[in-house]
Amino acid sequence: MPSELLLGPLQWMVLLTYLGLNHFMERQAAVTVAAVFLGDSWLAPTLGQEYGRHHYQMPLARRKTMEGSLVGVFLGTCVGSYIFLTFLGLEVPPLRVMLVYGALAAVAEGTAPGHWDNVAIALILQASWDRVPLWLPSDENTSVAVVPIVVS
Q1: What is the pTM of this model?
Q2: 57-64, long-range: CB < 8 A, 24+ apart
Q3: What parts of the sequence cross the membrane (predicted)?
Q4: What contacts 62, CB < 8 A, 6 or more positions away?
Q5: What integer is the mean pLDDT of 23-34?
Q6: What confidence tier does 93 reach under pLDDT thresholds 50, 70, 90?
Q7: What pLDDT, on the 0 to 100 scale, is given for residue 107?
């Protein structure tokens, strides 16, 4: 259908224009592009078509595979972000933060209605960018308390 062929490039144009104007050479732009380009547009369909055996469909969404959504988008976001950030000379967030961004991108892609998964991933990552590090414990606060076990 022609509208499907035009929708993806139009979404990309709007997304890249927004990121270029508002977040040029910033970490959140690199992570968002990695999630949408490597994860959703390349790895998810490739892995889903080749290795996808577990199909699912959320309400209003297209039929997808767990392998494409979970492995493709998750790995595409995590690994692609590391590559993009390193290549651009930007600071790479801690691994636990990158894993949360990968999980958020995978859930957004898997639950997005119709052909709006590019937009859903970008919106979720942009909205959660400052919040994710606050949700996770910091390095200073990760000490383990030792509780003595008393056997009577």
Answers
A1: 0.82
A2: 58/110, 58/111, 60/113, 60/114, 61/110, 61/111, 61/112, 61/113, 61/114, 62/114, 62/115, 64/109, 64/110
A3: 68-90
A4: 114, 115
A5: 94
A6: very high
A7: 93
| Eight-state DSSP code of residue 69 | I
Condensed to tens digits (0 to 9), the pLDDT of residues 124-133 reads 999 999 999 8
Residue predicted with more confidence, 75 or 145: 75
**DSSP characters over 72-130:** IIHHHHHHHHHHHHHHHTPPPPPHHHHHHHHHHHHHHHHH--BT-HHHHHHHHHHHHTT
SS3 of residue 65 by DSSP: strand
Distance CA 11, CA 20 (A): 14
Reduced to 3 states (helix: H, G, I; strand: E, B; else coil), residue 55 is: strand
Q: Is 112 in contact with 120 (CB distance < 8 Å)?
A: yes
SS3 64: strand
Task: Name the one residue in this structure whose structure tokens are 């970008």.
Answer: 122
